[in-house]
Write a structure and sequence with these properties.
- This protein has a single domain, classed as Luciferase-like domain (TIM Barrel, Alpha-Beta Barrel).
- The chain is built from eleven helices and twelve strands.
- It is α/β, with parallel strands linked by helices and 344 residues long.
- 43% of the residues lie in helices and 16% in strands.
- This is LLM class flavin-dependent oxidoreductase.
- Keywords: Monooxygenase, Oxidoreductase.
- It comes from Labedella populi.
Length: 344
């Protein structure tokens, strides 16, 4: 692997507000304070990336990733700051670019955008958009966002917002080119879109990792067929680490079970046997000891060829103490071990 681009590891959160045993959700102010603390520790411990994602529901605390990332920028010094994701279908690309360019200036050139269509559709009625135009909105607004990034002033016309005629978009970011990633849950058409536009790709892996290998191959093949060199692939997964795998799963199980029940109800009830299977050597869940997680990251790298791993932390109302300890293990034991193996 090219030593100029070492394997990157980071953490992210949607700021979910999982209810406790008494049915009380986590207070949003407390959760946002948690997110700031997780970011500070991730930065100090040496992780590469911190991300926050957008939802517009009462069980998530973050509706504006750029606002939360700006607060994080003021309290960190080196970690890259990304949205995971920005729901571009229901956002104005002009405002998105302005906000992230401002974040880039405030953070000293650490901002990234991860654009996605969104796992939920609550933003469409909220912003007065027709759900049947779901794909059209994303395609149209991604085209505008990329046009804004590549030139200024901007002339553009599309189908989902008024045209722009030689309009300046300010400010411009500190980075020569603001990174824009595309997040994909498993749709081949979305993978091809990212590849043909030359954009790096996030794969949100919630099922068997092997089923994403054809998507990674499709991404690289589609890029080359479009006359482009394939860009980077990143992977996101649910995560919790402790010194021993048994300890990690014992502590994580009640929290993760609650998270699945409240946020992924179609998955069904998660029992302990299912969690152990998901956390096994070929499962999608990263819950175990540092050594076990290192092995799984390396195995996924063999089948996917990704160069960035983002761990979703704080799931199911896990305590701040336990989440911070897990982040520390990711930075101090897992990251250096993965890099050492891939540098051989």
């Amino acid at each position: 692997m090219d030593p100029v681009e070492p394997f990157e590891i980071g953490v992210f959160t949607f700021g979910e507000l999982t209810k406790d045993a008494a049915g009380r959700p986590i207070d949003p102010a407390r959760r946002l304070a948690d997110v700031l603390e997780w970011a500070r520790v991730a930065d100090e411990a040496g992780l590469d990336v911190f991300g926050v994602g957008e939802h517009h529901r009462d069980d998530f605390a973050i509706t504006s990733p750029q606002m939360v990332l700006s607060a994080i920028a003021a309290q960190t010094s080196r970690i890259r700051l990304t949205s995971t994701v920005t729901v571009l279908s229901s956002s104005d690309p002009v405002r998105v670019f302005e906000d992230f360019a401002t974040l880039d200036l405030l953070s000293g050139g650490r901002a990234e955008i991860t654009a996605g269509r969104g796992a939920y559709v609550e933003s469409f009625p909220l912003f007065g958009q027709a759900l049947e135009r779901y794909d059209e909105y994303f395609e149209d607004r991604l085209d505008l966002l990329l046009r804004i990034r590549s030139r200024n002033p901007v002339t553009w016309s599309g189908t989902t917002r008024p045209p722009l005629d030689n309009v300046g978009i300010w400010p411009r970011p500190l980075q020569d080119e603001l990174p824009i990633w595309i997040a994909v849950g498993g749709t081949p058409a979305s993978v091809v879109r990212a590849a043909t536009k030359g954009l790096p790709l996030y794969l949100a892996i919630l099922g068997a990792p092997e089923r994403f290998a054809p998507l990674a191959d499709l991404y690289r093949t589609s890029a080359r067929q479009a006359g482009r060199e394939p860009s980077r692939i990143a992977v996101t997964s649910h995560f919790y680490a402790e010194p021993t795998s048994q300890g990690a799963r014992d502590r994580f199980f009640p929290h993760y079970s609650s998270y699945i029940e409240q946020n992924m109800p179609r998955t069904g009830r998660l029992d302990r046997q299912a969690l152990d299977a998901w956390a096994g050597p070929r499962g999608a869940l990263f819950a175990g000891s540092p050594a076990e997680i290192v092995d799984k990251i390396l195995w996924e790298h063999e089948i996917l060829g990704h160069t960035r791993f983002l761990a979703q932390v704080g799931l199911g109302g896990l305590s701040r103490r336990d989440t911070l300890a897990s982040i520390e293990l990711l930075a101090t034991e897992i990251l250096p071990a993965v890099r050492a193996e891939l540098a051989v």
